[in-house]
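Supplementary Methods S3. Complex input for the magnesium ion-bound model.
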Amino acid sequence: MTEVLRARGITKSFGGRAVLRGIDLDAQAGDVVSILGGSGSGKSTFLRCLNLLELPDAGRIEIAGTTAPLDHDRKGRPRIADPRALNALRAKTAMVFQNFNLWSHMSVLDNVIAAPVHVHGQPRGEAIERAHGLLDKVGMTGFAQHWPRQLSGGQQQRVAIARALATDPDLMLFDEPTSALDPERVREVLDLMRALAAEGRTMLIVTHEMAFARDVSSRVVHVRDGVIESMGPPDAMFGAGASPAFRAFLAH
Amino acid sequence: MNEEIAFLTVTGLAIVRALPVTVVLALTSALGASAVAVALVAAQATRVGRPLAQVWIFVFRGTPLLLQMFMVYYGLAAVGPIRHGLLWPLFRDPLFCAFAAMTCCCSAYIAEVLRAAWQAIPPGQVEAAQACGMSRWTRVRRVIAPQMLRLALPAYGNELVMLIKSTSLASTITVLDVTGVAQTLIAHSYRTLEVFCLAAAVYLGLTAGLTALLRRIERNLERGTGR
Ligand SMILES: Nc1ncnc2c1ncn2[C@@H]1O[C@H](COP(=O)(O)OP(=O)(O)O)[C@@H](O)[C@H]1O
Ligand SMILES: [Mg+2]
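Predicted complex, serialized as structure tokens:
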């Protein structure tokens, strides 16, 4: 199996408050890892450390064989050692946000081709052809020339997923992708993510959709107070083998 | 009556002949001020540049444009290195001095407009650009600048309207722009109200034209977001 993610000893404080207190996590190609935990436990911060939207105070991150270019300045604050290596690392990942974050001044099509063309240097024509295929795949056929604000939340999130797929990322990061959606729109996004899992995409998913996590994950991770409190295959985590803390979280 | 029409025609023509001076001053100052404003905003993103940009904005926004023009035109002439320096041919020209003062002053205002637009960019959209690996320059080019343009345009248009009207101050340092010509015409005819009304109508035409143009650009940009 090829290793896609190796994160070791990730720590992060905000203003002296430790939010991540040493997280280790690996993922192999095709893994679907669900990250569960109470609000404020550090799930988003962890995900954002992996693509360096937040700089971890300490730790080591490797994604698809590339090491995150982190070091520290003289005062010991984390910093980027090499911006090019940073962008190269990020280009291997894709992130799907709770609030979609589509670029509001670009059409749906331009949103999907932006990274392939402007980051990966793919010829525009090729990128457009591929984008149409991806829009078909996410159920957004015929919306290429629409603008983000003309779409419902569920539609925007499906476009955001097409945008994420456009660069064929090694690792996809989802941060509560359905939390901002109307209840009746949640399913269309979860079904799509289920299909991605089935085709072998490597995904890290922060979610509160327990049934989804149980069905789709290869591994479930429970984060509490900035550490991995327990983790395991969904059968164990949702069965008799679960830790008391995770059980308490589920009952909550 | 006939005499009246003849006077207004002759006066009107004289004023319109001064229009190019006003337009050139407004256009060059608008370009200069916008370029300096972009530099000021970029400088504010760096550690060394931030205090310099802030002092620039503090000084030029906090003092009257009229005094700035006086200082550039009358004041710098008394400074030896300028009087005898290579740039003297520029600084002895009142039109250039008006351009210099307006560029400095208006750049401070436009920089504040741009900074407000910068801060209004939805942070999530910038993060989405970072997350897919766009370099800093690509982010500016593809996400930040286009968003800023949309957010800044209404307030920026306002500044340009103010700028057009401010060009009339150049008449106080002997520039024969629309206002300057109007003043000389009054000195000969003593018909203050008519002449100033004609001059004001010229400014009104300029600002109305600019406003219409900006409206059109705004509408086009909005169409480009599906509104
Ligand atoms: N940029 C930030 N600055 C300061 N505090 C932050 C920042 N981001 C997150 N936090 C704090 O870190 C803690 C964990 O946040 P987060 O990772 O978003 O939790 P989760 O996603 O699990 O709900 C919270 O208490 C939050 O207030
Ligand atoms: Mg969160």
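Residues A 14, 19, 37, 39-45 surround adenosine-5'-diphosphate (ligand 1) (CB under 6 Å). The longest helix of chain A spans residues 183-198.
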